[in-house]
Amino acid sequence: MLSKLKISPKIRWALIILLSLLALALLFFSSIYFGMWGKIPSTEELQKLEQSKATQVLSSDGELIGKFYIFDRQPITFKELPQHLIEALIATEDVRFFEHDGIDNRSLLRVFFKSILLQDESAGGGSTITLQLAKNIYGRKDYGAFGIVINKVQEAIIAERLEDIYNKNEILTLYFNTVPFSDNTYGIESASMKFFNKHTSELSLEEGAVLVGMLKASHSYNPRIFPERSRLRRDVVLMQMARYDYLSEEKALEAKRTDLVLDYRNYSNNKGLAPYFREQVRKDVSKILDTLKNIEGQSYNIYRDGLIVHTTLDHKMQQLAEEAMREHMMDLQQQHEASYGENAPWLQNKNILEDAVKGTESYQKLSDKGLNHQEIMQELRKTKPTELFSYDGSTTKNVSVIDSLSHYLKFLNAGMLAVQPETGAVRAWVGGVDFRYFKYDHVSMSKRQVGSTFKPIVYTAALENGMEPCTYFSAEEVTYENGWTPANSSASDDPHMNYNLKTALSTSMNTIAVKVLMETGIDNVIKEAREMGITSDLPAVPSIALGTASLNLEELTGAYTSYVNNGRPSEPYYITRIEDGNGNLLASFEPKVAPTPAYSETTRQVILNFMQATVNEGTATRLRSTYGLNNDIAGKTGTTQNNKDGWFVGITPQLVAVTWVGADDHRIGFRNTRIGQGANSALPIFARLMQKMNQDPYFTNITNARFAPVSSEVAEMLDCDEKKRDGFFKRLFSGSDKDEEATSEGEKEKKGFFKRLFGKKDKD
After folding, report:
1. How far lies 99's CA from each of 90, 128, 613, in Å?
2. I need a labelling partner for 262 at 20 to 30 A (CA). Which of 18, 313, 603, 739 fits?
């Protein structure tokens, strides 16, 4: 055709080249359209858009305490988007949004020539909200030199299909639910909760402008890192709104004068409220989801399916518990380090440090490469910048792996579990001092010797097996099998004095606890412990009376709930239900409370009275004297051999809390009992928590709760002197006074000797 036209050869060749380029462009477009550069989602697929959504973890009152996600995304509906937020987005990102069908031809033409002719990959102004949505959903791939063109054409095709399927409001909703913000956050709701701790619907004009301004460059305009830069970008958004008549200029200027104030909440696994608890929830929910199927017969995914996990945790109590723990542990750590000085085991005991080194992943990797011990140690002495934990704030120093381990060995750790006794519902869970640096959860994972916190179980078994509260025992030391001779920690305990059970338990006399155990029978005590929910191994030896068995906080806490739950132990539980993103129930969980009491009501009242005496006049009196607590509280302190573990159990009518403090390495104990005893190491965490709760009316139902008075029958049983002088001649001739009857095997042997000496028959 061109040959028949009378045109010059130059024009002919120009037309041939132009038509060839158009043909090539058409072929190129066709290759993209038909998926030769990667499949483009069909209309049917776009109608079923499913994005990875974060699973939310909620406290008992619906507060968001954590999320599990690959991308931190939390979808909302169009009704939850404030009008000013929509206007800010349109004024800043796509002023002709309601006029085009997904592609703004004027802007796209400009970008096309900049990208193709000028090779300017940063050319802006052409991406509509719908084009950005296509990019947000499907991302971009690397196609080499033509990558930007291919990606933009693909996005244009997807954008047109989206506009055919969804109306403008639906597109805005999809966009806000998928757009990336700073700090690995996807979707406006997640960003709103993270940066301002409020739902999207509650955002102010200025806050919405901050988030929209962040979209231009999520890192550069991150208000957490670059607050001034973010504020300037916010002001640009406000002026854009004024420029396009969404705001009056006066209103925009007024908004610009406001300060940029964040209420930042990081929902990462390592930070934020209750990280140990959230990690335990993650483990449990993952196992639960393995047993559930969706309508398509597939398993749910905790990171993808946007589930909602409802828990029993009280977010206010959890916050106060973490504060109480940190305040106390900061002081206790200073006492601990000062008591050892330069003779600290983490400095002087080479075996402790070397064992710690051998247990590291770094050591194992070097060993797998064939290096011997000396070569590995040489490698691990090389320094590098390392972030180290400190109560004053983490610091980065040039240290070696060995230096780092030595640094962490000195730190004490802590665990605390607080539950509602009636149901076992967990209200606060503190697994350690800082999850970022100490991953080991001392609530669910750790088992430690429980010391004197086991004694109430011994006394409970004794009462259940017929022993009277006013039975008297001598504080005198007795040697048992294998030459074991338990002693009392208090030098004021008179070995020639007989004490009743209440005094013996409230002042935690070791000698009497073992005598009570032996008279009751070890098997009977173990049986009672099982009835109270203890499942761990319990050695059938006399020393079990002093808490040589290793238990975790969950089972010890569960056992103690029985004393304020009519004798029925409650197993701690913390997940109430799991829902899908639409609120449909997937699984629900009920409290696990023993169907029958583990002991009689009389025994319950007596032991609870004993533990109230522990607080009012026994080993836990600093709750009254030092911390000024006037609440109704029962409790029990515990300290293990060589001051390795400190324990405290605090009981109120509406709350049972168990705290533990010690070093992660069992070979490192407290330097002395003054520091390491449970009353000093563990009790203050509970005490500080109660102080904080007393100041908040939110906890009135717990802090104002009162124990019911004991029955007249129990009051009569408890009516006796706390101690009696051991009668010399009664010890010689085995008097019949039951209250002064010596019950240990050693004392029986002595009595038998004098009986035989004076011609009386020895009944034993």
Report:
1. 12, 11, 78
2. 313
